[in-house]
């Protein structure tokens, strides 16, 4: 809708608002057009979308209850009754994989969400103010990064105990540092630019500048980093599950399902094959999407 | 450069001290009283107090830390609760195994990743490029336990080429090394491709071509040599994370490495082993990453001032 076609607006302030939304809408549609031109990113987007839909409608589409055991059909091979076979307790693998997408997505999104909410403000503050505060914050981040990611998650879980919530915390701890580093780097890139100085000359305070000028300019790399991070968070969480330190049975957590499947690898390889495929597909979708978004949103990497 | 190196080295010691404090405090943050666990089931209160006293667990925590850290610096990590053997012996055996596996993995990853990246960059958008990039995408999206189990299923069970487990023969090392190396391999391939493409778009490459230099020379002498800086950094950083990341691969293949030792000791509440293994992994991780950073700064002067 064109601004001129809008009913007469008295306040100039409101008009300005419409103008802004008009340009950002145009910008959005232009980026959507660029996005559509990258088939790989679109494939990634649809893979992720399918998993999100599955997570929502799992109870409607799952052929069986994922927790109900059937001792007459233990370790059954894939058949018309059980499309992907059954596990060592006769539970339907397909149903468990469908329900498992809920766990993986919740862990991935929650862990990265928490990490972003803590890490980004820390990074913005460190980069903007510099000096001692910067040093302090970034040295604390260095300490978090002194442990390889999976090891840090293992240590956190060993302190808090295994379980779904603790997995989320454990996985997010490492990501906090990476978000802080990313946000700080972005601030350093833009904080000395003229428009920041202009804003300050007009009397804007630090909080205003950070929120209205710096944060919006870090959004693109943040979106890309978030997408890629959800994928690695899901893989780390599945790794914890595989080691028996993540979500506990009987929850249909993919990593834990694979660990069980490993015991029956020789007689029932379908358990590991299909469950692992689900993790691979979801991570692949997120990585393809993240790569595609980077091409579109990160102008420095544009060809 | 010297100033940068000194600054980084100066931070190394405090960082290691903080890491050691954190690692030491794990046992107090974990649920359960160490003395009760060490005394074992059916121990009387008196037994527990004896254990507490003989291990010095009744001393103030900072004193315990100082004793622990001064012993650790001399390579004495106490005795394992589970086996009663000296922790240091077990740790050095396990650490050597993880190192062996990581080195083989990173060498395979670097050779194949680099070769694949060069092919991709020089034949951009060709079938080979697409296949390499698709495989690399899968490489960074697959979890080591899935890849490991699938390799096992295919090569060990179906084809019978490699033993299922074990770690003594060379052939038992191949599948774990590929499993562990898949992710770095994919990263190296992607990094080689992108940094070579970036360099091949530069003017001096155009100039070299304009002078009539053979394409092979342009690629290998100019483009690759400059791209190697970035690639070496990726190799180094990936090697550091292999040490910690090996825990899953080690679990899949029952490889007696240090990562698996850490996880086993968490389950068994074997505190001396837990502290020592995590400290050794974190310390080597920090030191390797520092060496990588310094090397990178040495070849890339811009880094030193940021």
Fold blueprint:
The complex is a heterodimer of chains A (303) and B (306).
Chain A: H1 12-36, H2 39-61, H3 93-129, H4 131-144, H5 149-160, H6 164-190, H7 194-201, H8 206-242, H9 254-263, H10 270-297
Helix pairs in contact in A: 2-3, 2-10, 3-4, 3-6, 3-8, 3-10, 4-6, 5-6, 6-8, 7-8, 8-9, 8-10, 9-10
Chain B: H1 2-29, H2 34-39, H3 45-54, H4 61-73, H5 87-122, H6 127-141, H7 144-158, H8 171-200, H9 203-210, H10 215-252, H11 258-267, H12 271-299
Question: What would your notes on this structure say?
Answer:
The complex is a heterodimer of chains A (303) and B (306). In chain A, 73% of the residues lie in helices and 0% in strands. Chain A has helices at 12-36, 39-61, 93-129, 131-144, 149-160, 164-190, 194-201, 206-242, 254-263, 270-297. Chain A is elongated, with a radius of gyration of 23 Å. The model of chain B has no long low-confidence stretch (mean pLDDT 86). Chain B has helices at 2-29, 34-39, 45-54, 61-73, 87-122, 127-141, 144-158, 171-200, 203-210, 215-252, 258-267, 271-299. Chain B is mainly α and 306 residues long. In chain B, α6 crosses α8. Chain B contains 12 helices and no strands. Classes of the chains: A mainly alpha (303), B mainly alpha (306). The interface between A and B is large, with 42 and 43 residues.
Notable characteristics:
heterodimer, A: 303 residues, mainly alpha, MetI-like fold, elongated, disordered N terminus, B: 306 residues
Number of helices of chain A: 10
Instruction: Report the top-level CATH class of chain A.
Output: Mainly Alpha
Q: Rounded to an integer, what's the Rg of chain A over CA atoms? A: 23 Å
Work out the strand percent of chain A.
Answer: under 5%
Q: From the coordinates shown, what is the CATH architecture of chain A?
A: Orthogonal Bundle
Helix content range of the residues of chain B, please?
A: over 70%
Q: Classify the helix fraction of chain A into a percent range.
A: over 70%
- List the domain count of chain A as a whole number: 1
How many strand units of chain B? 0
H/E element string of chain A? HHHHHHHHHH
Major beta sheet of chain A, specifics? none
Q: How does the overall form of chain A come out from the CA principal axes? A: elongated
Task: Kindly report how far apart the N and C termini of chain B lie.
Answer: 12 Å
Question: How much β-strand is present in the residues of chain B?
Answer: under 5%
